[in-house]
What does this fold into?
Amino acid sequence: MNILVHGAGALGAYFGGRMLEAGVDVSFFVREKRAVQLKREGLKINSPEGSFETKDVTVCTSPEAVKNIDLVILAVKGYHLDQVVPQVQTIVQQTGAFVLPLLNGVEHLETLQKAIGKEKVIGGFAAIIATLNEQGHVEHTNANSTMKFGALHDEQIKICEKLEEIHNLIKTNIVREENIMKHIWKKYMYITAFSGITSAMQLPAGYITSTEASFNVARNVIFEMYMLAQKEGISIGEQEVESMASRLKGHSKEATSSMHQDMRKGLSIEVEHLHGGALRLSAKHDLNVPVIETLYGVLKPYESGKPSVM
It folds into this structure.
């Protein structure tokens, strides 16, 4: 199976790098600047799951140059989606490849399905806390990592079976799920709370539980997202929701979300893709989500990086 990882930020470089390490045929579709950096610095992963480094990285910068690809793993930020959709369309038209998006949230699934067809878009997401250092190398900071995926259409079953086969070769968890939409929503619920509270507080995870008031903000986001999931027809048990809220207390004191890491660096953040998306869905169902709405208002000025002083 030939895989193209579209995007070589921390997420794409990590999972693509792990596949390279295992001998899977992987190439990367990146911008010119990142292509130069990868050729100069190579791909390097610093991780509790084991470090890896290689200079043998195949990169593409033009969609027309992509050939013989079975699967595209789309590993870009939500705010880049509109920009990359035409590239994905070209690649799929040329190769017939399936697309596995690892974006946060849920709105991107419909966007991609409209662009390339429902039969081509596999459900999936990744769970990892990682960032790139100045050399463009991956700094993976939590204890483990997971990529989950599953078919959303019968035509995707065979490619999902092929991807599942490489699980035992790779130093990360690649897990196939039958009800992938439920798992996508559980990730969406959790990351909206965790990224929202750490970024709004501009403090790492240890401070979430430093006061009951701070913890309750994050917990209430999870329950608002739970109500929204129910409106969307996603069946999640109350015990699963309580367990999710308890997980907020399980992070190390220094751990934080990728959104907060981006905010610290003055980079763009996914507030529109996560919290904005939740508000659009809640409006569709006439559902009131005041805590999410408040976090959205607090974080919106940072959407394109640190706001300048007026």
Remarks:
- Residues 208 and 239 are 21 Å apart (CA to CA).
